[in-house]
Amino acid sequence: MFLTIVSIAFYLLAVSSAGADHAPLTGAHARLACAECHGDDVETLSRPTSFANRARGCVGCHQGYEALFDQAMTIREQERRFVEKTYGKRDGNFYQKNCRSCHVRDCLDCHGEDGHNITRPGTNRCLGCHKGYFIGADYEGRAPREDSVRYKRGKLFQGETFLKMLPDVHAEAGMACGDCHSMKSLVSGSKSSKKCVDCHKPSDSVIEHGISAHLTNLECYACHSAWAPQEYGSFYVRLGNGPARKNFRVKGSSGSEYIKRVYLKRQNAPPLGMNSVEKISPIRPQFISYLADIRDGVPAGEGEENRLLAAQWKAFFPHTIRRGTVMCEGCHDNASRFILEKEEDRIHQLQLDGMGLHSFWDPSGQEVMNGSFMALSRFARMSSKNPSYVRAYVRKWKRLVNRVEDSLKQ
Questions:
Q1: Is this model's pTM higher than 0.90 or not?
Q2: What DSSP string runs through 324-370?
Q3: Mean pLDDT estimate for the chain
């Protein structure tokens, strides 16, 4: 009996010394004993939810979820490799300085800050990390503002200002992230647990759905994504602590060796290319990356501005789904939307600006990491205006005219 009391006292002392606050458990774990999560008197876990110990206090019951420790949100392997090949060659600590803020390190990163009150992650919890240029904020109609401090105004969400845009129709209907992105899908490495056609069946009454090439060759969101944030030319400016810092009044410039600026931001309908399964999909610049090292005292030749390090795009799924589509010529006659901009149409003269590319909307010197740009020959075939295209085009316009006439009668 004495030994049992001593063991219990030892266990409580160990947990207390490790920082546990002994608050009562609530929610689904309310009836669990301390040892169920924190271990016993042989080995006590002060933070049973931490990925540092592979969340041993959680996976004993939630078996299978240990796969999250090796999932993309946790290890960020692609980002690490990218930094090693680019910025890391010029600053071996670049990743540590700039790329660690949104990595999942603990079950409580998603399930609430209080380990004694575990909660299911809601949409706002997801958007704590999935914001700015990361997929997520667009779902509720928030786009990144420009970098300058003059744009730090307007509505706030989790302490940051944003540009108000049209939200996704699923957000308007009250759907949360978890309705399409289940824990099981995250564990398996899938991007979602549902596809569009699991809930929506193409209707022949929609002219575009009646064109077999659309259903075969396009992702649904190639047409139904209303907009997407796009960054053309992402700069990391290495300022140091000298007088050069005074010339940059941008968000996040205080206290950091680096600041991030973007040459051009857009929030229009995203460009189109080919994804990994050879379907037409929205694409956008992921890493058109530049370095400007303007620290005082940098040796000659190392402080070059506008140093292009990578020009990589990514096929992606904008979370900005809306009913309806663009008009036919929005794709079939729009070379720039497929990154095939004609030279005579170029407004941005990147070469004259020392940017190392002919154009952001020209595939020369650029690549799509998980797909490809559309070939010019394929775009030419798509834009040939054959008889079937003309018939569909006429039907589309007749339907639009009839809708206008009907509304005028009302």
A1: no
A2: S---THHHHT-GGGGT---GGG----TGGGT-SSS-TTS-TT-EETT
A3: 86
